[in-house]
Amino acid sequence: MIKAGIVGGTGYTGVELLRLLAQHPEVVISAITSRKEAGMAVSEMFPNLRGRVDIPFSDPQSAPLKECDVVFFATPNGIAMQQARELLDAGVRVIDLAADFRIKDVAVWEKWYGMQHACPDLIAEAVYGLPEINREKIKGARLIANPGCYPTAVQLGFLPLIEAGLIDADNLVADCKSGVSGAGRKAEVSTLFAETADSFKAYGVSGHRHLPEIAQGLSGVRGAPVELTFVPHLTPIIRGIHATLYARLKTEADLQSLYEKRYQDDYFVDVLPAGTHPETRSVRGSNVCRIAVHRPQGGNTVVVLSVIDNLVKGAAGQAVQNMNILFDLSESTGLQQIPLLP
Amino acid sequence: MIKAGIVGGTGYTGVELLRLLAQHPEVVISAITSRKEAGMAVSEMFPNLRGRVDIPFSDPQSAPLKECDVVFFATPNGIAMQQARELLDAGVRVIDLAADFRIKDVAVWEKWYGMQHACPDLIAEAVYGLPEINREKIKGARLIANPGCYPTAVQLGFLPLIEAGLIDADNLVADCKSGVSGAGRKAEVSTLFAETADSFKAYGVSGHRHLPEIAQGLSGVRGAPVELTFVPHLTPIIRGIHATLYARLKTEADLQSLYEKRYQDDYFVDVLPAGTHPETRSVRGSNVCRIAVHRPQGGNTVVVLSVIDNLVKGAAGQAVQNMNILFDLSESTGLQQIPLLP
Amino acid sequence: MIKAGIVGGTGYTGVELLRLLAQHPEVVISAITSRKEAGMAVSEMFPNLRGRVDIPFSDPQSAPLKECDVVFFATPNGIAMQQARELLDAGVRVIDLAADFRIKDVAVWEKWYGMQHACPDLIAEAVYGLPEINREKIKGARLIANPGCYPTAVQLGFLPLIEAGLIDADNLVADCKSGVSGAGRKAEVSTLFAETADSFKAYGVSGHRHLPEIAQGLSGVRGAPVELTFVPHLTPIIRGIHATLYARLKTEADLQSLYEKRYQDDYFVDVLPAGTHPETRSVRGSNVCRIAVHRPQGGNTVVVLSVIDNLVKGAAGQAVQNMNILFDLSESTGLQQIPLLP
Amino acid sequence: MIKAGIVGGTGYTGVELLRLLAQHPEVVISAITSRKEAGMAVSEMFPNLRGRVDIPFSDPQSAPLKECDVVFFATPNGIAMQQARELLDAGVRVIDLAADFRIKDVAVWEKWYGMQHACPDLIAEAVYGLPEINREKIKGARLIANPGCYPTAVQLGFLPLIEAGLIDADNLVADCKSGVSGAGRKAEVSTLFAETADSFKAYGVSGHRHLPEIAQGLSGVRGAPVELTFVPHLTPIIRGIHATLYARLKTEADLQSLYEKRYQDDYFVDVLPAGTHPETRSVRGSNVCRIAVHRPQGGNTVVVLSVIDNLVKGAAGQAVQNMNILFDLSESTGLQQIPLLP
What we know:
Four copies of one chain form a homotetramer.
Chain A: E1 2-7, H1 12-22, E2 27-33, H2 42-45, E3 70-73, H3 80-89, E4 93-96, H4 106-113, H5 120-125, E5 127-128, H6 131-139, E6 143-145, H7 149-163, E7 172-178, H8 193-196, E8 201-202, H9 210-222, E9 228-234, E10 241-248, H10 255-262, E11 269-271, E12 289-294, E13 301-308, H11 312-326
Parallel strand pairs in A: 1-2, 1-3, 3-4, 4-6, 5-6, 7-9, 11-12
Antiparallel strand pairs in A: 7-10, 8-9, 10-13, 12-13
Helix pairs in contact in A: 1-11, 6-11, 7-9
């Protein structure tokens, strides 16, 4: 059994990791930490876990994290970079669900995240944990930078087009919509029910931290910089991201077949039949990304629709998928939940 | 492996049965019927099942239902009573998720359901499938009447008090709130999003079909008729029932301890700590009923809060629980999904 | 024109007062204060007011409140009692939308609100601003205690029955459901969208501050103490309260006619036809309370359904109604908005 | 007073027309028709209108429509074209809220709407009722084609850029999100609460009827065809459209100033400060369109955010605005409702 620890378990990615790991046949949860809630039973905060996860939150200092095989950081940005080295030195694999190791260019990271990076050398070592691109690199990694939610949906959507060199990668548009859980479990006026229900809005149009992450990933695939306009929106759903992607075709191609072939060996990417529209609820609670590709009126604009559950494939599920790869398990172990519909 | 058939698979209880049975380790789904959609892949209608349930709907006439070990009716009221006998005669166990066999008094049934019953003798044989009351009778049954959603939440909530004879059973109040999926997947104006979102209302105050079902169950427990005022409400959530129950105490008792003892051997009933309030989302997607018992200001009024997922413990999950009992499996087999929160 | 001031304008009752007063033909808004946001244009925080309310928040110290004819306190509990006397002494009428002056028994108030009262003598003077009971007293008042949201819906629902002495007032049940705006515009985890959407729960079953307020009001009508079980619930709607009230009839009566007569001269109470069910959306954005009275199965239990918009008849609208009475205007002046449906 | 009639009053545009006209100081509602509900009080179907609109639905045959000054068609597509001529001949002004007269090219209309047009000559006469473009033409019109909801939000958003010739109009993208009321008050599975709540999806990517309407409008402004990719989405809100528009700048310009000048005389278009993001709730229940213009990272892509209430500026409110112009009233008469927030 894999001994797993979670640092920072009181947010939505924390409870979601617990939900998934508690049902994982090869994992035992050794510790979950919270400075603030140390001593409180996890199931008191998250009653869905009653009878299933019976350990309490423990203090980060005293938790037996170094005895774990793998430690997940479900913390705010800037925490994992402080603590990762000590765990790595103790032989623990580290999977960071925050952004500390996602951006290779330290200066870019420091600009977007507004702090100095604590261990730039580890950035170089870290592997970006998008298995559909980096599966082989993940296998041998010690430190995984688990991708952001928007970057997962957008990169999986654009990937086949860019790999095939079919589109004008200097003029990409990603119009993305996220459920409110993406903002985390923080006390803030802007994500109150009465502020966000029955309303829809864009935010961060002038710049969002996921932009450099997406650009880095797609540029890596292209082998040259891409230019992307990324507009996130808030939609009144709890979980789910819907990315609507626009690009101009440079070359004719059978797009449906392109996507089906690209993802035929990726268990968690489901290419839908031509002409269909994925709903976010069709992946609710599961690690699947569903994608449909369109070419309206047969013109030169490709429209790709890509949906994920931001807390699963966009966070905790992808982290477990990465753990499965790290420990040489079948990629879908413990991740076979069928989406909840309706 | 148990060969299972589903009659009428295009509603919410149908898709929920599929979700649960597809993950059940001892079941193979042999057939799912729909007159109207025969030939269509199930996963075309319910894309959450893509890659997991790959059979098409089949015509009720040609489906191999008699070769099944068990057949679930996820049909409107009045269908199972037409078809159950033929299946029973062929040795198939039948679990009806509709109301055809729930009410023992045929005249009462015919009054509330507005049709003549097709097989009153089978009513007598049918076992009311609330395992927390009828577990032993279910074991040997051929025909199970799976309880309604409100009746499940209300009966489990009142049960310990009535068994113990602690309350005035001539003056019970059940103020119940249901998610909109309880109304089914039918094209109706009254359950449109724009009619039900951001609004709350009572309905059926003058009389609801679940009233005689609840009254029958509680009267059976009491050994005498009970008097109940039952007011259902519609709340803008997809899944979930919250029953708020009121009764007057006749005798002093340690209510918390009473509830904990009553349900200590019932895997799917979770008695919460004193002073707490269950949320419907704490059981979302799971077969658990969570109950809290209160006595405000130490007075003589008991307030019981009881929550279930109407599509799981209130329908498909309870049906699978009944199947597990019928086939001598552990009651929780295939029903260990952790609720989705948030 | 009436010069109106608002103290504490950054919450939901504040913006709602602005919406109503900005459309009121006899009012000019002289000042709206916020310590924290002084200087910010009101319409920057509340863009629905762009082009309609163009003043900024001003500092409470420097705002010309004493030159107003009326000042509304849309502040947290405990503020109005600090500042009311000075305004009253300056000849300003004061309407407190918080709870400082609602409870006549100072000890009871101090117990439920957990602080010492700053001016018990003003409690005695204050008039409880439920016009349907206290219209005459309101006319000459200097200081109005505007009722709470639950208390408005519950008292209007029970009033005709208690005035007529028809029910057992020692055993009342008020099962109430509130939209999330009732919790205010405060940064709290418990009212985040991802915590409250698609879920339903009770809260405060052991005791809620509106219980003594309701009990005081109904006891005053009865002329003797009433006993009430009050259970509030949170339903995922933005605005709206639905009170479902239960009582036992002692005497036969034509309830429909009783209610229609009782409220025939109350512009803002609408008694619905027999057999109907009011929806909260039928009063969304308006100052109306809609009530339906039922007697299920012709038994002895009366069920009253009472709905209001918690921010209008439950707060800002009722405050404006009280202002209209104070200044001898027609009660409905500026309060004729038609509810928004859908 | 203007005598107004409404044909087809049982849908959402019908009830919204009633809400607005009942509050309009210069209008008396003479008739509202519904074949199916003739005789039923309007307020029985729409209880928000109780006490405010007390007429019943009348049969279309017997209603005194020819005696009206103006008749609104709030009917499905294909009805107004059957009945308009008779009313026009009787001297009645006609405002069609459906699509019968929106598309000038009859062949295009017949292709997208799947029926033969009944009166192509009236198409030529009809004026497209977007006052911000066609105010002068509307003044003298007999027959107004009230714009669609998406077309209103998209055209107002692109208008200044196209008029100024600043963008590449051969590569426009309109990513639009609509509330569910946009689908109308029809009994359909796809718009049930349990199908649309807590989920987000695109639809009609291969082609939507509003595409030719938008293209016609923008091409008219450009004086040459535009090329537009239009992707509509369904978001779980009741009312509201959010259009996110993308275009490539060809020429430098001060976009903020461009928008502010273009709309300085349009009462119902509110250009927000630079850097802001309009929410749909900021226009809920009102006739305002709020627009913000962005240029992310100072690049060549312009992003315009445009929000309206689909039932007001996108339907009934714009129809009343057109009526005000037709009858030489101030454009905002009866349309000054402040949006409901929260």
